[in-house]
């Protein structure tokens, strides 16, 4: 439906970029649908981890649909902007940990979707890049800021200013990907990671993600205060009591 499919497997939600005939290029309708799906997943207390994957064999996502945009007026492009921001923000602001399963081309907005995730699994066919400056644009889905935070200023500048592409091996060495797997297995690996995350306390995992996200741009003292708040969120929770009881009784926890 409008290029995005939502699947569920137990406590794992899978958001699929599902417009393979256009290499999963982001259209206005697809962006609206993605924002709606992310809002649905964010509000779903039973979803403990999220996988962001893509349909088709050639691409994760090649960014904005330039064919659609080429036919738009400046006013229409400006009106599209908040729709796109809502789509990218929807992925970035998911309270659950997000694992991106990347195969094929992840260019422009596709690379930005991957950068919006907490973990990036790349298969051997993956190609990453932020080529916006080569067509007179600036990354507009969070690319400049997310690359800066993930890679540091030098590597972010290398990626953004040159517009060059990184294969899976270089992306792993660069810090853009967290795991490299054989071609065709990124989704399987990502689902496995998400499944492992989903076995842990959802209260603790969400609190940890929030502390890490908010702490990325602050000093150490402020970051430790964020960690203290996260600890206080979970220390007196039913999840903590169940977790300790399960450990003592040598059984799997049944998170309340």
TrEMBL record:
Its EC number is 4.2.1.17. It holds the Pfam family ECH_1. InterPro entries: ClpP/crotonase-like_dom_sf, Enoyl-CoA_hyd/isom_CS, Enoyl-CoA_hydra/iso, Enoyl-CoA_hydra_C. It catalyses: a (3S)-3-hydroxyacyl-CoA = a (2E)-enoyl-CoA + H2O; a 4-saturated-(3S)-3-hydroxyacyl-CoA = a (3E)-enoyl-CoA + H2O. It is an enzyme of class 4 (lyase). One of its GO terms (molecular function) is enoyl-CoA hydratase activity. One of its GO terms (biological process) is fatty acid beta-oxidation. Keywords: Lipid metabolism, Lyase. It comes from the Bacteria. Belongs to the enoyl-CoA hydratase/isomerase family. PANTHER family: (7AS)-7A-METHYL-1,5-DIOXO-2,3,5,6,7,7A-HEXAHYDRO-1H-INDENE-CARBOXYL-COA HYDROLASE, ENOYL-COA HYDRATASE-RELATED. This is enoyl-CoA hydratase.
């Amino acid at each position: 439906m409008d290029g995005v499919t939502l699947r569920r497997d137990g406590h794992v939600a899978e958001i699929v970029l599902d417009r393979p005939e256009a290499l999963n290029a982001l259209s206005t309708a697809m962006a609206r649908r993605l924002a709606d799906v992310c809002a649905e997943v964010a509000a779903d207390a039973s979803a403990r981890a999220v996988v962001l994957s893509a349909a088709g064999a050639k691409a994760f996502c090649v960014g904005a649909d330039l064919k659609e945009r080429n036919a738009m007026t400046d006013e229409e492009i400006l009106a599209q902007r908040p729709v796109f921001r809502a789509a990218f923000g929807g992925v970035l602001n998911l309270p659950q940990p997000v694992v991106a399963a990347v195969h094929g081309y992840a260019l422009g907005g596709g690379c930005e979707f991957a950068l919006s995730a907490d973990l990036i699994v790349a298969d051997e066919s993956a190609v990453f890049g932020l080529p916006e400056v080569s067509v007179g644009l600036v990354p507009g889905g969070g690319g400049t800021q997310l690359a800066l935070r993930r890679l540091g200023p030098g590597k972010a500048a290398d990626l953004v200013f040159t517009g060059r592409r990184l294969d899976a091996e270089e992306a792993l060495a660069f810090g853009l990907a967290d795991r490299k797997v054989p071609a065709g297995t990124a989704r399987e690996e990502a689902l496995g990671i998400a499944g492992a995350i989903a076995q842990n306390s959802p209260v603790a995992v969400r609190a940890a993600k929030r502390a890490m996200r908010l702490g990325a741009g602050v000093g150490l003292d402020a970051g430790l205060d964020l960690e203290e708040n996260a600890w206080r969120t979970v220390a007196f929770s039913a999840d903590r009591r169940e977790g300790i009881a399960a450990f003592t009784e040598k059984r799997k926890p049944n998170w309340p």
